[in-house]
């Protein structure tokens, strides 16, 4: 993956949208991905959107532009766009939610259904609880209502 190309395209897209910020690429080899970290003093609520919807769309757009220019097809999991640590904070929240929910299921002996989540967030829950003793996870529901259920084994 061409780091310079990703950085340049990200800066160009932000400029076209009227936003400024520092762009840094951080390799996360343990997660097999690259995080594009944007730090901006501006109100980035519009870039992030409700529940990160705009951020995911912006990430997808940059992914497509990079793929078109480099000829490399990158999967969303290999490439994370993070604005003012929104994605990192959300990932930390999901990891804590998964662990707390697993403990609650073990304590109450009752399954627990989490709120609807996008695929990448459900994946974080599944990965966090993979191998967690005594519980298992499964995704249920359709489209925008898809959610994770944590159950006893």
Question: Which helices and strands appear, and what pairs or packs with what?
Answer:
Elements: H1 3-17, E1 22-28, E2 33-39, H2 45-48, H3 53-70, E3 79-83, H4 86-108, E4 112-113, H5 119-129, E5 135-140, E6 147-152
Parallel strand pairs: 2-3
Antiparallel strand pairs: 1-2, 4-6, 5-6
Helix pairs in contact: 1-3, 4-5
Describe the structure.
With 153 residues, this protein is α+β, with helices and mostly antiparallel strands. It folds into two domains: 3-84, GMP Synthetase, Chain A, domain 3, CATH 3.30.300.20; 90-152, Ribosomal Protein S8, Chain: A, domain 1, CATH 3.30.1370. 46% of the residues lie in helices and 22% in strands. It is built from five helices and six strands. A three-stranded mixed beta sheet has the order 1-2-3, with helices on both faces. α1 (3-17) packs across α3 and α4 packs across α5 (119-129). The model has no long low-confidence stretch (mean pLDDT 92).
What's this model, at a glance?
With 153 residues, the chain is α+β, with helices and mostly antiparallel strands.
């Amino acid at each position: 993956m061409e780091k310079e190309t990703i950085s340049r395209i990200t800066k160009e897209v932000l400029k076209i949208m009227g936003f400024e910020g520092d762009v840094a690429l951080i390799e996360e080899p343990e997660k097999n991905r690259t995080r594009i970290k944007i730090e901006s003093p501006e109100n980035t609520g519009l870039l992030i959107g409700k529940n990160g919807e705009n951020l995911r769309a912006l990430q997808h757009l940059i992914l497509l532009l990079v793929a078109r220019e480099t000829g490399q097809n990158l999967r969303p999991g290999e490439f994370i766009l993070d604005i003012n640590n929104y994605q990192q904070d959300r990932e930390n929240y999901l990891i804590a939610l998964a662990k707390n929910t697993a403990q609650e299921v073990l304590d109450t002996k009752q399954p627990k259904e989490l709120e609807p989540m996008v695929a990448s967030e459900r994946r974080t829950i599944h990965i966090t609880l993979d191998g967690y003793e005594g519980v298992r996870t499964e995704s249920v529901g359709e489209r925008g209502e898809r959610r994770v259920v944590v159950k006893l084994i």
